[in-house]
Amino acid sequence: MKAKRILALTIASAMAVSLLAGCGSTSSTSTGDSSTSTTTKETSDTPAAAGEVYYLNFKPEQDKDWQALAATYTEQTGVPVTVVTAAQGQYETQLMSEMAKSDAPTLFQVNGPVGLANWKDYCYDLSGTELYSHLTSDSFALKDGDTVPAIAYVIETYGIIYNKALLQKAGYSAEDITNFESLKKVADDIQARKDELGVKGAFTSAGMDSSSDWRFKTHLANLPIYYEYKADGITSTDAIKGTYLDNYKQIFDLYITDSTCEPTLLASKTANDATAEFVNGEAVFYQNGTWEYNNISSIGDENLGMLPIYIGAEGEENQGLCTGSENYWCVNKNASEEDIQATIDFLTWVITSDEGRKSMSQDMGFVTPFDTFTGEYAASNPLLEDADAYIAAGKTPVDWCFSTMPSENWKNGVGSALTAYAAGTGTWDDVVTAFVDGWATEYQLANG
Amino acid sequence: MQKAIKKYWPVFVLPTLAAFIIGFIWPFLWGIYLSFCQFTTVQDVTFVGLSNYAKIWIDDTFTHAFFFTAAFTVVSVVLINAFGFGLALLLTRKLRGTNIFRTVFFMPNLIGGIVLGYIWKTLLDGVLTLLSKPLLSLDATYGFWGLIILMCWQQIGYMMIIYIAGLQNVPLDLIEAARIDGASNGQILFRVKIPMVMPSFTICLFLTLTNSFKLFDQNLSLTAGEPAKASQMLALNIYDTFYARSGAQWKGIGQAKAVVFFLLVVVIALVQLRFTRSKEVQQ
Lengths: 448, 283
What we know:
Chain A: It comes from Gemmiger gallinarum. Chain A: Residues 1-21 form the signal peptide. The complex is a heterodimer. Chain A contains 18 helices and twelve strands. By secondary structure, chain A is α/β, with parallel strands linked by helices. In chain A, the strands form three sheets. In chain A, strands 6, 7, 8, 9, 10 and 12 form a six-stranded mixed beta sheet that branches. In chain A, strands 3-11-5-4 form a four-stranded antiparallel beta sheet. Chain A is globular and about 75 Å long. Chain B is an all-alpha fold. Chain B has one domain (63-277): MetI-like fold. Helices cover 73% and strands 2% of the residues of chain B. In chain B, a hairpin with a 5-residue loop joins strand 1 (37-39) and strand 2 (45-47).
C-alpha cells in the first residue's frame, strides 16, 4: 500500500513538474513561433554586463544581417542582444503581444506619425542621445512637443524601376521620359510592339494580392496626397479633398492597361509575380523601391535605373523620386534603466563602429540619415545612385505623405476599390469614395 | 486503489485544474474585463465603462458580418450534415472498399484551415479565370460559395465518421423486426435509423454550427473579407477591428465585439442542444 502511495505521489509530482517545465519552455520559445527568426540569446562566459537588448525587427529582408550584427556585438561587449523579426505584415500584432510580456522588446519600430500615435506612451525620449546628435536633419526624427520619441534609421526611395537594356531596345532612353505624357507615349508604344520587343507588357502586373497591393494603395496613392498637401501648403489633414485623384486614375489606368496580364487577373497577382516578370525581362517598368534591389539585381547593375512616378500634375518635370522613411527606432520607456542604456549603447555602436556601419550600409544596403555613414560606408547600388542623381540635378524629392494616412483600414478600403475597378466589377467612383469619404470617416474614428 | 484516489485526489486534479485556470478561466475573465477598458497592451489598461460596447455599431461592418456569418452557417450546416449522413448511409452498406472510401473522405479534415484556404483559392481562381468570371476576391457571392465548398470538403468526412459510428450502433434486430413488419426502406430510414442516431445528430449539429459560426482561418486565407469586407465573417471582423485600426480605443472595441460574439455562440449552441436533445429516444 505504501509503495503505491509513493508511486502515486511520484507520478503526480512528475506531472506537475513537467507541466511547469512546459510553461517555462513555451515562454522562451514562443518568440519564434509566429516570427521568421531565431534568437541569439547569449549565455556566454563573459561577465554579464548590466542590461540586455531585445530588438523586434520590422524588416524580414534584413533579418540575417541583424542576427549577425547582434552576435558580433555580444562577442565584443558581452551584452546579450536578441533580435526577433516579425513575419511580413504581422508587426503590429506581434509587437502588441511582445510588449505585454515582462520581457518586452527594448527596441521596436513604428512606421511614422500614425504608428507612433499607438505607441507614444511607450517611447523613451531620445533627444539627449548620441544617436539623435548624429542625425543629418531634424526631419528624420519624429517629435512630440520637445521630446524625440522615434528616430528614422533608413531612408528609402521608390519610383518606377526600369530595365535600361529593354528601354534602349525599344528605342528610348530615360531622358525621353520627363512627364506623364512622355511616360504614357513610351509605355503605349512598347505595349503596341510587345511581340517584336519580346516582352509581355510595358509594366509588370499591378498585382492586387496583399503581398503587392501596398505598391498602389499606399505608395502610388502617396502622389495625389503629396500634390494636394503641396497645393494647400499643409503636411497632414483630417479630410482629403482628392484634388489629384484624376491623376491617380491616369497613372493606375496606365499600369493596368500597358501590363503583362489582363486587368481581370490582377486580383490574384502577387509581388513575386511582378518581380519574376521584371527579372525575366518580360516587362520594362516596375514600380517599386530601393529595398527591392537584392531581388532584381540579377538583371545586372548596368541595366537598372529608376524614374520618378509622373502622374500628370503641373510642374512635374522638376519632380524627383519619392524619398522618405517608414522605419523609426523607438526605445521602450518601460524597460529597466540598464536595458534602456544597453539599447542606446547598442544603437550608438551600430551607427558608429566599423562593423555596424559596414553591416548597415553594405550587407543591409541601407541609406541612413546619420552623419557617420560617409566615404566607404555610403551605401551604393544603381537605384540609390539614381536617387542621388535626381537630387543632384535639382529635382525635388517627393515626401512620404502616406505616413499620414489615417489607418490601415483606409488603405484596405482603397485597395479593395482599386482591385474591383481594375477587374471591372467596380467603378472609379468607388475608389474616389473610399479615398475621400473613407479618409474623413477613418480620421474621425481614429481620433474621435 | 480506490482509497488512495479518495485520499490523494487533489494531487491528481490540481495540476490540470491549475493549467485550466491559467490557460482558460483567467484569460477569459481578463478578456471580459478588457472589453470595458482602453488599452494598447493587455497589461496597461484604463477602465472606460460601457463606451466600447456603444461603439460596436459605429460602422455597419459588424452587422454585415453577422448576417453573412448567419447565412453561411445555415447553408453549411444543412449541406455538411446532409452529405455527411448520406455518405455514412452508403458506407455502412456492405460495399467493397468501404474502408478506403472512409479514409479518403476523412483525409481533408487532417489539413489545416489556412493551407486549405490558400489551396482552394488557387483552384477556384483558376476555374473562375477559365470561365472568365471575376475572381474570388472580387465578388462576395463567389466568395460565399467558395467558403461553402471549402467547408463542406473539409467537414463532411469528419461528420460522416460520427454518423457511421451512430449507424453501426442501431440494433440489427430492430431493423429486422421492422422489415418483417413490412416497412419499406424509406420507413426504416425515417422511423428506425434516424431516431436511433439522434445523439449523433446532436453532436454533429453542435460541431458544424459552432465551427461555422467561429470560422476564421478559412475566411482569412480564402477571401480575406474581400471585396471591401463584403465576405467578412464575425471572427475576422473582430480581428480586423483589433489590428487594422489606429488609435488606442479600437482594441477595446474589438474586445467588446469578441464578448458579444461569445454570447451569440453560447446562446445559439444552447438552443440547438436543447432542441435536438428533446428529439433523442432511449434505446
